[in-house]
């Protein structure tokens, strides 16, 4: 070691050359006359020029053969005292990119005596940067061409991108919308809820949807459906949100019109049911009086058998019409929420036994033998009238669609749940139509010839729902159907849906 702990000069030169020759980056040096004095092995590999063809020659001419550009001005600037410069050029073949960092080489007196350079092949980095630029350009082109409004935010929640569709919608610039500027166009009644929904979803890193009114460039507020999704970097780090907005003003107006139409329909059905009920009551009274007159033993000649049959037919049709009116009335009461359950203690088995007796004429007319197995003492607190109507509709359906075959009814339960099952052996229905029959006015396509309003099962489900009950069906075409009604008897857990 020399004085002061410095390495001997020849040792330092040897160490430098060893390190330079082992370097993966190209290293070269030139003197003040720009003659090449050093050209390491990596430079030979990068340039395909051996050191023997470079050393002693003008470095500017040599570099022009490697990089295809004029490095003279940069080298002269370094020789003039520039502390260090970096340039990036493509190789002469256009396939590679080199980044070169130039440093002045000073003598012991501190004067610039030459230039040294570190050369690195950054072709891969250059391609990645170019691909990223092209990807970003494609994204922006696609985003600007999109018919929906798009936005992006950073990890701090501030928005940094709005597509051209958004800017044209609001009539504002990107600078005006930047950060939280976009909120200036949100209707004041929706702003607090909108920001709160965004903050809550942002903190939980979850997808969100919200609706709010956004001012269009013409000053009109339009209803917007905004859906935001968290985005992540390739290494899994949260990178912010990306969202899309759709103008749903027309949809909301149509929904409002539809709700109004449904309310008007329900009002009409309610009024019509009440109005029809009055003359039907009078008609039933007249039919009853006529039947008593025909059967009265007052010594008058007996009425012809045909006349008695016609009166019976009239009575049957009046009863059928009364049932339809009652069904419409139940439907409108349930739809508008005007029906309230009156809960009392009910024995489910006894109730079903009585209904089977009352519906005996219907079963006989349909040619259905009823097989009933009812567990005794199965009590619960339910609305008797609603439960009767639901069970009547289900059992009546079994007679209608399973005519000519037995109908099996089972009532059973445990400490928590009571169940009534009604099985017929009729036409059945495929799985994809099983939910349809529980909809209001819903009917399976292959049962259109059986008559009815398509309300019975819907009414049954609505009545049962008010008692925390459920109804479901298992069926296959041509193999009949099994309807199961399940009811909580007390503070039982929720029923399976």
What this model shows, in words?
The protein is an alpha+beta fold and 497 residues long. Helices cover 43% and strands 24% of the residues. It has four domains: 3-121, Beta-Lactamase; 127-247, 2-Layer Sandwich (Beta-Lactamase); 257-335, Helix Hairpins; 343-488, Histidine kinase-like ATPase, C-terminal domain (Heat Shock Protein 90). It has 14 helices and 17 strands. It has a five-stranded antiparallel β-sheet. The chain is elongated. It starts with 8 loop residues before the first helix and ends in a 9-residue tail after the last strand. The model is unreliable at 1-5 and 491-497 (pLDDT under 50).
Kindly state the percentage of residues in helix: 40-55%
| CATH topology group of the largest domain | Heat Shock Protein 90
- Percent of residues in beta strands: 15-25%
Taking the sheet with the most strands, its summary is: 5 strands, antiparallel
Q: Looking across the biggest beta sheet, what order are the strands in?
A: 2-1-5-4-3
Total count of strands:
17
**Would you identify the CATH H-level superfamily of the largest domain?**
Histidine kinase-like ATPase, C-terminal domain
The CATH architecture category of the largest domain equals 2-Layer Sandwich
The class by helix and strand makeup works out as alpha+beta
Task: Kindly provide the radius of gyration, computed on alpha-carbon positions and rounded to a whole number of angstroms.
Answer: 45 Å
Shape: elongated
The average pLDDT is 81
- Poorly predicted ranges: 1-5, 491-497
């Amino acid at each position: 070691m020399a004085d002061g702990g410095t390495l001997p000069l020849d040792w330092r030169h040897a160490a430098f050359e060893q390190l330079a020759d082992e370097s993966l980056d190209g290293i070269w040096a030139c003197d003040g006359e720009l003659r090449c004095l050093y050209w390491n092995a990596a430079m030979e590999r990068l340039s395909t020029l051996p050191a023997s063809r470079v050393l002693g020659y003008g470095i500017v001419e040599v570099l022009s053969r490697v990089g295809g550009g004029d490095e003279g001005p940069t080298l002269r600037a370094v020789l003039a005292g520039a502390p260090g410069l970096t340039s990036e050029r493509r190789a002469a073949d256009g396939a590679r990119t080199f980044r070169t960092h130039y440093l002045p080489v000073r003598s012991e007196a501190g004067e610039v005596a030459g230039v040294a350079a570190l050369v690195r092949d950054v072709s891969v980095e250059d391609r990645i940067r170019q691909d990223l630029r092209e990807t970003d350009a494609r994204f922006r082109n696609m985003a600007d061409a999109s018919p929906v409004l798009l936005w992006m935010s950073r990890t701090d929640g501030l928005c940094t991108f709005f597509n051209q569709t958004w800017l044209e919608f609001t009539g504002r610039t990107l600078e005006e919308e930047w950060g939280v500027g976009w909120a200036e166009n949100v209707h004041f009644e929706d702003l607090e809820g909108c920001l709160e929904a965004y903050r809550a979803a942002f903190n939980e890193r979850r997808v969100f949807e919200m609706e709010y009114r956004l001012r269009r460039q013409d000053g009109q507020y339009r209803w917007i459906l905004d859906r935001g999704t968290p985005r992540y970097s390739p290494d899994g780090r949260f990178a912010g949100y990306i969202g899309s907005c759709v103008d749903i003003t027309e949809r909301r107006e149509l929904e409002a019109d539809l709700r109004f139409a449904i309310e008007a329909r329900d009002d009409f059905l309610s009024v019509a049911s009440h109005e029809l009920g009055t003359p039907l009551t009078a008609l039933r009274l007249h039919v009853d009086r006529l039947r008593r007159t025909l059967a009265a033993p007052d010594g008058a000649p007996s009425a012809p058998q045909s006349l008695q049959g016609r009166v019976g037919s009239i009575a049957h049709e009046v009863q059928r019409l009364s049932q339809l009116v009652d069904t419409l009335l139940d439907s409108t009461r349930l739809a508008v929420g005007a029906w309230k359950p009156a809960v009392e203690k009910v024995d489910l088995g006894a109730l079903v036994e009585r209904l089977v007796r009352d519906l005996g004429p219907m079963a006989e007319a349909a040619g259905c033998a009823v097989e009933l197995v009812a567990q005794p003492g199965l009590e619960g607190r339910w609305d008797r009238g609603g439960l009767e109507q639901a069970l009547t509709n289900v059992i009546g359906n079994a007679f209608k669609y399973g005519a000519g075959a037995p109908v099996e009814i089972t009532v059973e339960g445990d400490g928590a749940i009571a169940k009534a099952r009604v099985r017929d052996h009729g036409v059945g229905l495929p799985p994809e139509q099983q939910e349809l029959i529980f909809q209001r006015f819903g009917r399976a396509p292959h049962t259109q010839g059986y008559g009815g309003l398509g309300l019975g099962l819907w009414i049954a489900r609505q009545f049962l729902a008010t008692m925390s009950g459920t109804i479901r069906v298992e069926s296959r075409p041509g193999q009949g159907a099994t309807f199961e009604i399940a009811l909580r008897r007390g503070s039982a857990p929720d029923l399976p849906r």
